[in-house]
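re: that chain from earlier
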Amino acid sequence: MKTKVLLIGLAMVCGVSVARGQEAMNLSLEEAQQYALDHNYTMQNASLDVQKAEAEKWATITTMFPQVKASFDYQNMCGYEMNFGVMNIPMNPYGTFGITASVAITAQQIMGSVIGKISQEMSDITRKKTIQTTMSNVKSVYVSILVMEDIVGLLDSSLANLESIAQTTQASVDAGAAEQVSADKVSVQVASLRSTINSNKRSLEMLYNTLLLQLGAEVGTKLHLVTPLDNIMNVDEAARLTMNGFNMENNYDYQTLVQSEKIAKDQVTLAWLDFAPTLSAYYQYSYKTYFGKDEGMNMTPPNVIGAGISLPLWKSGNRVASIKKAKIEYREMLNSKKQAEDGLQVQYNQLCYDLINAIETYRIQKENLDVTMRVMKNTSEKFKYGHASNLEVTTASTDIITAQSNYIQAVMSVLNAQVSLENLLGDAKN
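^ sequence. v structure.
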């Protein structure tokens, strides 16, 4: 009986898991991007890196806070007595309780906290770039799915039309009005088109799985994308990106270089501060008690306050070498930054050219696909009434497959060029 109840329970749990895995999600592009920002594992790690950098900064700062420790010592001389000739002084067991508060501050600690703050800012820039990359990746896969679904729909319509032609041709062959080779050629075109559709459907399934990974959603979740492709593929808006100019300070890679330059400059200061003195202060409280009948000599003061300063004098030339090295690395950083500035400007110009070319190609291929579909429809109608040859039908069918392939490539070229330019321009709002 217990076994039966256990099996029923497991079945219910599995049923719930399957139901959750098959839960459908209706997502607009904006909702998909927001879902990815909330659940994508790479995005979560980027946020954790910011928290880790903040913890490291505070770990450096807290080294400048007072450090307090408590101690208790017990000593037993095992009955030993000090002999002063005329008198013996017993060395009774005693215990000492002490509390010590101390603080030591160096210029290097202060500069280390400054560098820690810069590192935290760099982690935040990385987080913003991860947001940008995540949103771009979701958009790319989202659009790819929409394009593939449209193409599959178009090809399904063409397949139905071509299958009708194949049936008509075979009927003509059976009636003796056409040769069998004509029906065979149309059948081959039907099979080829059906194979293309099946291949696109498999690619579509792979794209859905890719989107699930980008979203951080549970594997097996059914997705329904509700934003139409026309609402996303706004080529006029994409073209305006090439007219807005390039503010390099909004680029996240450039922001990281600026922070790296600050760190390299502070490293020079940090090397010089190795010559700076160390300031220290402490307070100590001690309470000593004896456990024997007689009190012994208590020479331990209960309260002690002290302060000090230490100045490093010689370190075998190590400090001078460290300063020289830090200066060289800072100059290298300046050179790398200048090279990156020039490279980003060249990249901006190139991406603008790429986007303009992609938009022009997209408009041509979209029109070509529309024309090809009309030609196929017209040729099919003519073939039904004997005004078009078998070769013309075959050619029109092949042209559709070629046109849809070129159209997909054109759409993705626009999308990739637009996303690349958007990523380069950055977004200070994130």
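The first helix runs from residue 2 to 21.
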